[in-house]
UniProtKB/TrEMBL annotation:
Top-level EC class: oxidoreductase
Domain Rubrerythrin diiron-binding: 129-262
Family stated for the protein in its record: Belongs to the AcsF family.
EC code(s) of this entry: 1.14.13.81
Species lineage: Eukaryota, Viridiplantae, Streptophyta, Embryophyta, Tracheophyta
Reactions it catalyzes: Mg-protoporphyrin IX 13-monomethyl ester + 3 NADPH + 3 O2 + 2 H(+) = 3,8-divinyl protochlorophyllide a + 3 NADP(+) + 5 H2O
CDD domains membership: ACSF
InterPro entries the record matches: AcsF (IPR008434), Ferritin-like_SF (IPR009078), Rr_diiron-bd_dom (IPR003251)
Name the UniProt record assigns to this protein: magnesium-protoporphyrin IX monomethyl ester (oxidative) cyclase
GO MF entries: magnesium-protoporphyrin IX monomethyl ester (oxidative) cyclase activity; metal ion binding
Pfam family, one: Rubrerythrin
């Protein structure tokens, strides 16, 4: 998992820890417990420095952790119950995951620390935030996939093993980002994060929509940044981006696996409710990213990107990819869609300004009411725009094929 999706989730106010550490090696050691996978970080350096804990302000748009109805998941992947499960396709996918293309990809070098040391002032701060948020999003995928791998072992060992191998990938991604934080003398306390953060519950159907989108949008974000920096090396200020080309292939494979999972559950894709939910999840993911990134333009400008252009490119490409499997998607290429996103950014900026003002809590809340109403109305207007009817060509197996 690589991207964030927050608009459909409740606000939680728990905080996570950033621990200042003088050592630069952070390792993943994982232990699974009853309901959720637990991961701890351990330093291999002599002694971890006294914790200088730093809370991070959480908001509606902060990356979250997910949990689901694992009993229902077991039912869905029981080959006795669901005859539509294409075990051959899953076997083929499993072989691909076992190949482990990126086994030796995530190896650091001394360029990292040197680049981090050169980064000073606001850019340094922005980079740290980028690493934290990315690490949290990757780690969130690790926890969910790890648990799914554990829970599905008996009913469908092939699907279970794929989930476990995907959790391997996400652990690698999160670990690599956390090592990046060590270049800035920081480390996310992932063990604390696992226990302290709230988990958002999604039914399996919604987990499929959300994780599929999260993987595909993550792919498009990483590959777009990679290609941009390859073409404009003068903006290559931290070596982590050089790893994005192979890294994003992991996210692409994860997304393809969810695509296969959804095809095995056509009831999640082929009725009017599925169309409404598919559009809702797309909109939620796109708006979340756009609002998030527009609050962090300094980061994108720091690597030579225009934030809004970058986001629109990612949204359009993700939407085109998603249209191959989702039964309906928003018409993001209609210029009105972007105009609505931009209006949401303006309203969100006003909401942030209210939060930062000196007013007392009651006054702040009163000022927020019309802004939240305006945001909700923009969202509703975007949701009710005429969508694009879409869907997998594989579903047309009983229909006459078009011949050109
Ligand atoms: Fe990932
Ligand atoms: Fe992923």
């Amino acid at each position: 998992m690589a991207a964030e999706m927050a608009l459909v989730k409740p606000i939680s106010i728990s905080k996570f820890n950033l621990t200042r550490t003088p050592t630069t090696t952070t390792k993943f050691s994982t232990t699974t417990t009853a309901m959720s996978a637990t991961t701890t970080t351990t330093t291999t350096g002599p002694i971890r420095a006294k914790a200088a804990k730093k809370g991070i302000k959480e908001s509606l748009l902060t990356p979250r952790f997910y949990t689901t109805d694992f009993d229902e998941m077991e039912m869905l992947f029981n080959t006795e119950i669901n005859k539509k499960l294409n075990q051959e396709e899953f076997e083929a996918l499993l072989q691909e995951f076992k190949t482990d293309y990126n086994q030796t990809h995530f190896v650091r070098n001394k360029e990292f620390k040197e680049a981090a040391d050169q980064m000073q002032g606001p850019l340094r701060q922005i980079f740290v935030e980028f690493l934290e948020r990315s690490c949290t999003a990757e780690f969130s995928g690790f926890l969910l996939y790890k648990e799914l791998g554990r829970r599905l072992k008996k009913t469908n060992p092939v699907v279970a093993e794929i989930f476990s191998l995907m959790s391997r990938d996400e652990a690698r991604h999160a670990g690599f980002l956390n090592k990046g934080l060590s270049d800035f003398n920081l480390a996310l306390d992932l063990g604390f994060l696992t226990k302290a953060r709230k988990y958002t519950f999604f039914k399996p159907k919604f987990i499929f929509y959300a994780t599929y989108l999260s993987e595909k949008i993550g792919y498009w974000r990483y590959i777009t940044i990679y290609r941009h920096l390859k073409a404009n090396p003068e903006y290559q200020c931290y070596p982590i981006f050089k790893y994005f080309e192979n890294w994003c292939q992991d996210e692409n494979r994860h997304g393809d696996f969810f695509s296969a999972l959804m095809k095995a559950q056509p009831q999640f894709l082929n009725d009017w409710k599925a169309k409404l939910w598919a559009r809702f999840f797309c909109l939620s993911v796109y708006v979340t990213m756009y609002l998030n990134d527009c609050q962090r333009t300094a980061f994108y400008e720091g690597i030579g990107l225009n934030t809004k252009e970058f986001d629109m490119h990612v949204i359009i490409e993700t939407n085109r990819t998603t249209a191959r499997i989702f039964p309906a998607v928003p018409d993001v290429e209609n210029p009105e869609f972007k105009r609505k996103l931009d209006r949401m950014v303006e309203i969100n900026q006003k909401l942030i300004a209210v939060g930062d003002s000196e007013d007392i809590g009651l006054v702040k809340n009163l000022k927020r009411i019309p802004l939240i109403a305006a945001l909700a109305s923009e969202l509703l207007a975007a949701y009710t725009m005429p969508p694009i009817e879409s869907g997998s060509v594989d579903f047309a197996e009983f229909e006459p094929q078009l011949v050109y």
